[in-house]
Amino acid sequence: MKRYRLDPLIYKTKSDSQKFGGHWFRGKNCNFIPSKKHFKDKNFFDKYILEGFKPKKPFITKKQNILAFGSCFAAEVSSYLANKNYSIFNKKMSTDTHIIRYGEGMANTFTVLEQLLWAFENKDIEKNTWYYTSQKEERNDFEIREQTLNLLNKIDIFIITVGLAEVWYNKLNNQVFWKAIPASQFDENKHGFRVSTVEENTNNLDSIYSVIKKYKPNASIIYTLSPIPLMATFRPQSCITANSISKSILRVALDNVISKYNNKEDLYYFPSYEITKEYFVDPFLEDNRHLKQDYTFEIMKVFEDNFCC
Fold first, then answer.
1. Which of 39, 178, 224, 272 is the most exposed place for a label (fewest CB within 10 A)?
2. Where does residue 173 rank: exposed (0-12), middle (13-18), buried (19+ CB within 10 A)?
3. By three-state DSSP, how is residue 31 classified?
4. What is the distance between the alpha carbons of residues 18 and 191, in angstroms, rounded to a whole number?
5. Considering only CA atoms, which of 295, 301, 302 is closest in space to residue 280?
6. The whole model's pTM is what?
7. What is the CATH number of domain 55-307?
8. How far out from the chain centre does Cα 115 lie?
9. Domain coordinates of the chain in residue numbers?
């Protein structure tokens, strides 16, 4: 039997030369981990982080209406694009629409989907499901729903940021709440806590895409995973490890949906989470939650360069 020589594989670039074992089959696609030297490359983000996720060409124009909502990182997206004079609906605009006021607090996929179904399909939302600071405000008022629907019908680009897999839910009907329950209204017989599953979040993200395309067939959807960690966990473990699980569940769910619609040119993933975790050495302020402003700007500059005309 003929024996083949298994020489080490040398991966050479302008920045570095790396040696890998040469015995394994590399298939049609083989992208190597960058060395520290590659981090200084001008094309680092394109080659080592955005590979496989970049649109064929930038497509967001300043004439299109953009809405960014979901987790708190959506506010950073809105602010950056608004300052660049893109037509993004945010708190600076003269609108009191529900999704503008509270959009960056809809951190779990259940709430994002429910918000769209409530607006587009008039889904009935049980009273006291959407808890806010003010307990007197009605959450599914007809006028507020109509305002939200009118806004959504104007949107061309949906940028949806997800951030939490941990959820509070109604024990009586399993409906997921928007956020944690106010202490003044907590009822142990009604309110429960759990970690949502990869399957649940995959289904939610798939449905979000489908609902938007049903009513806005020409719209584009960009998913991101918020790099902002949990403020606290309600699990009996450290917040750091719980955050790792929460982000992992959402990242797998996002990959499931992006992979399912791989040939679609209206659904994208922007890796803000990976840029934060893998590129920046010390990305957060002293509270260890909020991104340093320079790093937020750098993330959004990468977004602008690849998605915006």
1. 39
2. exposed
3. coil
4. 54
5. 295
6. 0.88
7. 3.40.50.1110
8. 16
9. 1-41, 55-307
Taking CA atoms, 123 is separated from 39, 76, 140, 206, in Å, by 48, 29, 10, 18
d(CA 44, CA 305): 13
**pLDDT tens, position by position, 60-106:** 999 999 999 888 888 889 999 999 999 988 755 545 565 655 555 67
pLDDT tens by residue, 181-220:
888 888 899 999 999 999 999 999 999 999 999 999 999 9
Give the pairing of strands 157-162 and 9-12: unpaired
* pLDDT tens profile 5-55: 456 677 677 777 777 766 677 677 777 888 888 888 888 999 999 999 999
User: In whole angstroms, how far apart are CA 241 and each of 73, 128, 162, 196, 272?
Assistant: 21, 31, 18, 16, 20
DSSP structural state of residue 185? G
Radius of gyration of the chain (CA): 21
Q: What are the respective helix, strand and coil percentages of the chain, to the nearest 5?
A: 40, 15, 45
